[in-house]
Amino acid sequence: MPLVALIDEKIMCMHGGISKDMHSFEQIEQIPKPTDVPDSGLVADLLWNDPDEDARDWEENERGCGFVFGKKQLEEFLKKHDLDLICRGHQVMEDGYGFFGKNK
Predict the structure, then answer these.
(1) How far apart are CA 15 and CA 47, in angstroms?
(2) What are phi and psi of 29, to 5 degrees?
(3) Neighbour-count burial of 2, counting CB atoms closer than 10 A to its CB (0-12 exposed, 13-18 middle, 19+ buried)
(4) Which of 23, 58, 67, 71 is placed for a possible disulfide with 101 were both Cys, Cβ 3.0 to 4.6 Å?
């Protein structure tokens, strides 16, 4: 199963969230498959990181794995990778979906 899907070069989809360790999409392409999920790093972040309305920076996730990121980190990530939207599926939402960071 792929770690990330990129739709029309503008929408990045993954289970978890963005990663401060991601500098290019080539990094994801170079991950050997199958692979074990490490405790930290790019693969773990893509699977376990979460947005947090109150996060001002990258902070440890209360769940004990991954990090949380705030709106500023999301905007920087989108700009750096020339993306319009991040779509993720890791958290249960009251109406089945939710938005974060100006619907990004």
Answers:
(1) 5
(2) -65, -25
(3) exposed
(4) 71
Instruction: Per-residue pLDDT tens, the chain, 104 aa: give them.
Output: 788 999 999 999 999 899 999 999 999 999 998 999 999 999 999 999 999 989 999 999 888 888 999 999 999 999 999 999 999 887 766 776 666 676 66
Strand partners for 77: none
Closest CA to 28 of 8, 47, 10: 47
Domain ranges in the chain are: 4-88
Could you tell me the two tokens for 96? 């089945």
Contact 91, 50 (CB under 8 A): yes
What's the length of the chain?
104
**Long-range contacts formed by 68-73: CB under 8 A, 24+ apart:** 69/17, 69/18, 69/20, 71/100, 71/101, 71/102, 73/18, 73/20
